[in-house]
Amino acid sequence: MKINRSFIKTLLTVSVGLLACASSQAAEKLNIFCWSEYIPQSVVEKFQETTGIKVSVENYASNEEMLSKLSGGGSYDLIQPSEYTVEALIKADLLATLDSSAIPNLKNIGPKYLGLPFDPANKYSVPWMVGSVGIIVNTDKVKDDIKSFSDVFQPKFKKRIVVLDDARELVTAALSTLNINCNDITDENLAKARGVLKDWLPLVKVYDSDSPKTAMLNGDTDLGVVWSGEGALLQRENKKFKWVIPTGDSHQFVDNLCIPKKAPNKANAEKFINFILQPEISALISADFPYTNPNLEARKLLGDEALANTASFPPDQQAQKMILFKDVGKKASDIDALITDLRAE
Amino acid sequence: MDLTAIKSDDNVLKPRPQLAAWSILSPLFFWLLIFVVIPTALLVVASFCDRDGLGRIVYHSNTENYLRAIKSPYPEIVGRSVYFATITTVICLLVGYPVGYFIGRSTEKMRNILMMLVMVPFWTSFLIRTYAWISILAQDGLLNGFLLWANITSQPLHMLYTPGAVVLGLVYNYLPFMILPIYGSAEKLDNALVEAAYDLGAGPVRAFSNIIIPLTKPGIVAGIMLVFIPSLGMFAISGLMGGGSQQMIGDVIYKQFSGANNPPFGAALGTLLLIIFAIGLWFSNRKQVQ
User: Fold this and answer.
1) Is the ipTM of this complex over 0.85?
2) Which residues of B, range 79-118, sit inside 8 Å of A by Cβ?
3) A5, A8, A71, A213: best mutation site toward chain B, by most B Cβ within 10 Å?
């Protein structure tokens, strides 16, 4: 008894309760739920200055994380789903239709990036950035000519690899080496992918979707399977980093701005969409996060060096081979279970 | 405890002590009900459910989640978590006991300064402190830079993204939780008893093991609990400092609610972990009673 009592007392002494006061209510608000490392703080501040709308930003590291928070009742005005997630959200009737008259700057987006299969009439989505998943190589440390995902995952590179902490991207890379379409997710194909990943994952040192460039910059890894924007940033930092678009299929993603059906401040979200579609603002985003900017007017403002970067702007011939993801429904959990199981082994 | 032992006497107007006890305890009961009982019940219910394509819980009773949870690799992940948590607790105890004891036996002025120093790291966010470790331990980081500069090593060491880095992160974050309760016990330790031990012929080792350890035991027990339990469920450190290849059970559970879109499975893992804790506590209590 004595032990218990002093134990509880100690617990009480140690625990410190902090009560945060609710911040005072601002008149106009906008709650953005977006990928980490994707919307520059400067752009958010400019928007606040111009419109007087108070913006709060919350981040996520995967589409699935965003889905689970959104469907768990999170109240957001603007989200940033990738193509297959837009498809899933439309199916589940969770997106609001956009008021096109409030977004006249949509005209700046290249026709190639509009009317894509996941939202043929752009009723629900406006493209934010386009990118792909490819390979980054530290050529100071790796002298081999890396061409494909299977070149990366060789036993001699054990514990020198960083990959995206994203189950679907990893399975896609494995399927690509097997020449299987990444949208053809069947039990049989997953079993085949498992065979490949079983050998690959023990070679991985770091799993990071937020900022895989950190491990490359710190010298902890020499090879990476990362987002193209991260690759472009690394190249900008140091010429020793080389971007490789893998032979075979790879994933091209189209990240979009969408408004959830239950958004409390829909009009403000539309204002934000229209705001970032201005060429000068969009060019600012490209400067910080050099993905493929679908805003053709903004591209005119980018320097030649930025436009020549193959991570940001892959040559057409290679871009054509890239594949958009389709929503795979409940199979998404099977994909994750596969990776979770293999990582634990 | 003692409250229930008081018997009501002849005076009927005197409020019944049981009632007084209950009314004093009622905030605690409500707190437990709202923040412990109800959430745990929801967790258990969810663990028997299914989910749809968007990861929303669908009420369709099944035991599939548990069947998956008890199969490899999940028991191994729990094992690894217990292993990391045990090493962390042992290191924290070895480092934290002398520190806590020393602070507890210092003069009051000194004590306040030392306590302050233990608490200072809490003024900064846990994540920022963890990121600071990343820049220290990275291959091109501060520590390797120093080691190479001082010619102590010729090759940079692999420190970040290793199991050792995970344990370091855990020890660093939980050490104060070991120091504080031990300090509390050491402060109350009656010096007369230690002196008596010496007078009766005990050497320093005997006095320490027979007098000081038993008298500071409440602090040790509390410290072990406060370090072991949270390190077992920790999730961010193994991702940030272990690179995600040293997953702990906390990471896997967190992942189910975020990236994996499978809250029912996460709930099943959480429930199993809860059961393991409950059994562990029950055993340790029984041992103490004996």
Assistant:
1) no
2) none
3) A71
